[in-house]
Amino acid sequence: TxxxxxxxxxxxxxxxxxxxxxxxFNLSEGDYLEAEVVKHGILLxxxxxxxxxxxxxxxxxxxxxxxxxxxxxSKNIRAQENAIAKxxxxxxxxxxK
Length: 97
Description:
4 helices
């Protein structure tokens, strides 16, 4: 908000963010904010918290889907990048279906 809105510190040090702020940052119950002390106050920044075990499972699952593309090795870097971009696009189309 341009002028700022008052936020009241409640029981157990809880605060409620104004609706306009929550909507602007697409925040909902359970989301995390990082609190940082700055020169003239407190800065709250939305952050993503990732479950490390789940992230590693996702990485290994993705790696299992990777195929060798020996034909890419013989191409120059620009051609390799274009070929990789096409593979990614094709993969995304399959995922959306």
